[in-house]
Amino acid sequence: MTDFEFYNPVKVFFGKDQLPKISTQIPAGSKVMFLYGGGSIIKNGVYDRVKAALERFEVTEFGGIEPNPLYETAMKAVEIAKEKNIDFLLAVGGGSVIDATKFIAAAIPYRFGDPWNILAKGMPVAAAVPLGVVLTLPATGSEMNKNAVISRKSTDEKLSFGSPMVFPKFSFLLPDAAGTLPKRQVANGIVDAFVHVTEQYLTYPVNAPIQDRFAEAILITLIEQAPAVYENPADYKAMSNLMWSATMALNGLIQCGVPGDWSVHSIGHELTALHGIDHARTLAIVLPGLWKALLEEKKTKLVQYGERVWNITEGTDDERALKAIDETVAFFESLGVPTRLSAYNVKADTIDKIVSRFEDRKWLELGDRGLTTPEATRKALTLQL
Predict the structure, then answer these.
(1) What are the tens digits of pLDDT across the range 310-322?
(2) 240-264 as b/e, with b when 16 or more CB fall inside 10 Å?
């Protein structure tokens, strides 16, 4: 196990009847900006519940945050927040709303030029407006971490940043609110959480058995709960298990003492930026291709993953590793999530663009050991045409 530091200050409230406690978590007298997406929180009643919980505060609403949240939209919120002297942000929705809110929190006090520099140039976040979360869609784990991903329409880019300054002060997790989600969003959430785990687990052995077991427990839980929650998102027990699994997948716990890869995400972000494909669906395309492209390097953990998660115990190591990849593909596709670029009419010219971008950015050795070179990226995507 490698050296590590672990810090997570997010206070979590989980369950049906927690929401009224919001008023006790926001400092009295705060000017609150209430941020949300396309209006699903109005249909499922969460909007009214949040408004009731905020009745003692001065509230400014900002709706319309997109899936794959846009920098351009976030900057509109920044301008309003400055004008209204907002001093607390409340993100209500899924990971896109939360990510946008984190960027807005960092951008409001930013004093070093264009806030896009936080993403494009890795400029440090020196200050941020405090924020809280009401989660209605399990997927990204953003409700309990310091990371965010933002797209910029004008340049067709999708980039990430992380800072302890944007940890939520609290997160209310509402499995009941997720009961009205379309199946597509439920499937995306399952795949997103699954790949978050594999990015931290399926690297190489470092004698970290407790971390491996934590990761495997989340993967097995996702596999076990997926059929029920996909068939009926209103199954409260199954949705509760999915929501907590998605949170645990990316709150920093399973990454302690182990290497992380994240090259699947780096490649997937480009597919979203160039073609607007749902984030989770890009991961379902890239993951099996990259595992095959780096089969020899990842074989040890692929065999362990196959045995412990999919009960694959027969055959050579190569056969078992490939079978584990096949089982993963079958799992994604059982949720209606394609794993081929052709399903989105994406052709080889896109692969050229992605490889060229990585070369231009000097992203020449991504992943846990620098294995995801531009050549490996090309091979992984070509395998998924």
Answers:
(1) 999 999 999 999 9
(2) bbbbbbbbbbbbbbbbbebbebebb
The domains found in the chain, sorted by start residue, are: 11-176 (3.40.50.1970), 183-382 (1.20.1090.10)
192 vs 175: CA distance, rounded Å: 17
Phi-psi group of 114: left, alpha or beta (phi > 0 → left; psi -120 to 50 → alpha; rest → beta) = beta
Element of type H or E holding 319: helix 317-334
Residues sharing a CB contact under 8 Å with residue 372, sequence separation 6 or more, in sequence order: 261, 263, 266, 267, 290, 294, 365, 366, 380
Cα–Cα distance, 128 to 91 (Å, whole number): 14
Strand, coil or helix: 162: strand
DSSP-derived letter for residue 347 is -
Least confident residue range of 35-44, 60-69, 148-157, 221-230? 35-44
Contact 288, 339 (CB under 8 A): yes
